[in-house]
Amino acid sequence: MLKIALYICPQTVCSSLSMAMDAFNLANQLAARPLFQLQRVSLDGQAVELDFARIAVDGDLRLAEQADLILLPATGSAIERNLAHNAALLPWLAQRPPAQQLASLCSSAFLLAASGLLDGRRATTHWALARQFRQRFPQVELQIEQLLCEDGHLLSSGGAHAGLDLCLHLIGQHADNELARQVANALVFDSQRGQQSRFAPLLPEIRRDSPLAPLLQWLQAHHGEAIDLARLAQQAHCSPRTLLRRFKENTGLTPHDYLQRLRITQAQRALSQHSASLEQIATQVGYADRATFAKVFKQLCGETPGAFRKVLRGAPESRLPE
């Protein structure tokens, strides 16, 4: 029987905790035998007050030291607060032996990274936290496009429901893949969603009062046309050099990169809304040929346009991300 210690703190997200517990308890039920033993732990062994519930625990971190797997449910997006309130956890995590698996759901990847365990390792977290994670932990190889990531005994998952992908992966790893499939079916969960990158917006959010707002609105209407820096500068009534500076300041991108992201964003919408051919969509959003379109699409989305469309249509792919 695999012993799993679920770490609970005041910042624990209720839905993340309950989702993990439901998955492993359901695996036991469907297998008709106890494959997974769940124990709830807190820093001091005392019950924890969450936003919507008071969670009783089975013990403190000493109990978790006997577990085969330590699971950190999501702790929300207030990263500074979370790290400060869980400062005592970090050195304890750093001392865990390699024989003990450690897994983080969503934002709790910050706890694993702050302990130093992820240095030089691959990891993922919620796509919206990518910039903050990279700035704080540049030594971690962040693979933000992945729904889940496993590097040795360390596992991490992306946002919200990706935590269930991680739990299913663990069920398949420590029991069998058929049981993981049964759990996914019982939870009416689609484990064929592709990569996390399909959920992340490609374009940065721009304020309405941005000096670039008129130009970006024009680009929305003309992105399918042949556009170069000179034409954009003419439309913005400034020099190309000035435009490059303004673009970088307001979007963090060059005009060329912004245009590519705009075109691929429009292509994603076209792929999800109608059955036009890839050649037709490529032309519609501004590419001269399908090959160029597919290359840029894969660079930005982590998958080909065809794979993106297949997932939307429910075509079979590998059941669990690697």
UniProtKB/TrEMBL annotation:
Keywords: DNA-binding, Signal, Transcription, Transcription regulation
Domain HTH araC/xylS-type residue range list: 213-311
Acetylation among keywords: no
Gene3D superfamilies tied to this protein: 3.40.50.880, Homeodomain-like
InterPro entries named in the record: Class_I_gatase-like, DJ-1/PfpI, Homeodomain-like_sf, HTH_AraC, HTH_AraC-typ_CS, INH-QAR, Tscrpt_reg_AraC-type_HTH
GO molecular function: DNA-binding transcription factor activity; sequence-specific DNA binding
Keyword Signal in annotation: yes
One GO term (biological process): positive regulation of metabolic process
Signal peptide boundaries: 1-20
Designated name of the protein: Helix-turn-helix domain-containing protein
Organism: Pseudomonas xionganensis
